[in-house]
């Protein structure tokens, strides 16, 4: 029996032929790789061409571009504004039509964050904040305010501004400022415990000092039409050097033609009651129109800082729940006093400042008692605040008639216009002995704010 060796493949040819099931008959591996690269390049070119066509279409269809960009949160909207001039114009239109304030709450899980704290703060702001904030008020527990190591590339480093870990420690405020943008002023305050609301306003949280938990509660304010929020910070020495109410108002940046509607004060534990009383007396001396006052004492030693709410499109009331209140039913009766003031509830919020001695132990093991009652009575208002070393506040409960929101704001602006006449007169002289009962202990002070914002969303 003979064998034709010419027609029989040799060992090397047999090894090459169809050795890879993915290769064609006699096709080399090199040739297959070239084809795969060509296909990948073709796919990428096709995707880029599609994206380019979509971008060109959106540029030509301005109304469609507005609809697409209107679904983006503030962080993504800032990035989209860098694409082109037309996108920047559309982003500015959307940004200027958003007047909704936001609230955020974070808490560590099982004595440790489920994700790194900077990433938790950064991600929540990027996902949930739609209006461009110009002011952030954030209350941190002592463990949450500390510096954190730049150890994740998922967020931009506050120093290098790149998605690259530098390995250095950065304070939490730097990560907060990075996510909020350069136009947002951040007021951070260290406290014993924080109070906050869920994003859907379905529940409230009270993280007390005894839990030693890392947590944060914040409220973010955009520029609101007809409303001005002035942030101030001063020392006790600076307060005593002010010779007149007009001088103090000027230094704080308070416009001379706007009425003060509310004052929120955050101080150190070395600030005395007469010093806080002098601050309120000076501001009240510039106008006959009374304003609401509430605040708390944090972990800092010195310094006075806070917020002044001005304008005809914000109304406020303040309430003190005294230390004698220890039953839930009595708390309901006190919070109902705010309800009886008949302020509009569509766009409102409540600052809550309570003593670190209250909380779970005060109500015999029941947690979140007071914040839950506020939430049930005002389901549209987020509750933001903290547990402090003392409480600041005045009872200010004006009685407005029950009416619809539009009628309320018309009457309220009429009242404010009449009260503005007092701003033209010289401010009353404040005597050093003039005194407000403003400092409290084992109490809860509430500041309820209602905003008149009619154009809060794009009309698409």
From TrEMBL:
Annotated stretches, region: Disordered: 1-50
Residue stretches making up the FIST C-domain domain: 324-393
Domain of life: Eukaryota
One Pfam short name: FIST_C
UniProt-listed CDD domains: F-box_SF
Domain F-box as annotated: residue spans: 63-92
InterPro entries: F-box-like_dom_sf (IPR036047), F-box_dom (IPR001810), FIST_C (IPR019494)
GO biological process: positive regulation of proteasomal ubiquitin-dependent protein catabolic process; protein polyubiquitination
Protein name listed in UniProt: F-box only protein 22
Organism: Frankliniella fusca
């Amino acid at each position: 029996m003979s064998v034709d060796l010419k027609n029989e493949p040799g060992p090397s040819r047999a090894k090459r032929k169809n050795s890879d099931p993915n290769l064609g008959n006699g096709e080399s591996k090199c040739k297959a790789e070239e084809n795969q690269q060509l296909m990948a390049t073709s796919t990428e070119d096709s995707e880029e061409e599609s994206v380019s066509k979509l971008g060109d279409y959106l540029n030509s269809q301005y109304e469609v571009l507005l609809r697409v960009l209107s679904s983006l949160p503030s962080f993504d909207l800032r990035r989209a504004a860098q694409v082109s001039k037309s996108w920047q114009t559309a982003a500015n239109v959307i940004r200027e039509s958003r007047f909704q304030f936001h609230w955020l709450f974070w808490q560590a899980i099982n004595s440790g964050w489920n994700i790194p704290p900077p990433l938790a703060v950064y991600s929540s702001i990027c996902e949930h904040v739609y209006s461009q904030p110009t002011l952030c008020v954030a209350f941190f527990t002592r463990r949450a305010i500390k510096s954190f190591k730049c150890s994740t590339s998922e967020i931009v480093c506050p120093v290098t501004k790149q998605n690259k870990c530098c390995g250095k420690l950065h304070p939490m405020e730097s990560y907060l400022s990075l996510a909020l943008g350069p136009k947002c002023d951040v007021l951070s305050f260290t406290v014993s415990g924080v109070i906050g609301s869920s994003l859907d306003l379905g529940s409230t949280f009270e993280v007390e000092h005894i839990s030693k938990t890392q947590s944060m509660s914040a409220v973010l304010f955009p520029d609101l039409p007809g409303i001005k929020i002035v942030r101030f910070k001063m020392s006790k020495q600076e307060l005593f050097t002010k010779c007149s109410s007009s001088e103090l108002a000027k230094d704080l940046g308070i416009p001379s033609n706007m009425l003060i509607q509310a004052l929120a004060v955050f101080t150190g534990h070395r600030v005395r009651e007469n010093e806080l009383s002098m601050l309120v007396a000076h501001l009240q001396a510039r106008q006959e129109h009374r304003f609401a006052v509430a605040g708390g004492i944090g972990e800092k030693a010195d310094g006075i800082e806070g917020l002044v709410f001005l304008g005809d499109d914000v109304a406020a009331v303040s309430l003190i729940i005294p230390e004698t209140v220890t039953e839930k039913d009595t708390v309901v009766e006190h919070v109902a006093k705010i309800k009886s003031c008949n302020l509009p509830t569509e766009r409102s919020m409540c600052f809550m400042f309570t003593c670190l001695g209250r909380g779970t132990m005060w109500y015999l093991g029941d947690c979140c008692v007071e914040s839950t009652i506020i939430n049930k009575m005002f389901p549209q208002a987020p509750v933001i605040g903290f547990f402090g070393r003392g409480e600041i506040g005045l009872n200010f409960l004006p009685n407005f008639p029950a009416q619809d929101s539009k009628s309320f704001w018309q009457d309220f602006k009429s009242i404010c216009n009449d009260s503005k006449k007092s701003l033209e007169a010289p401010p009353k002289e404040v005597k050093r002995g003039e005194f407000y009962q403003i400092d409290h202990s084992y109490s809860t002070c509430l500041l309820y704010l209602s905003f008149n914002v009619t154009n809060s969303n794009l009309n698409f």
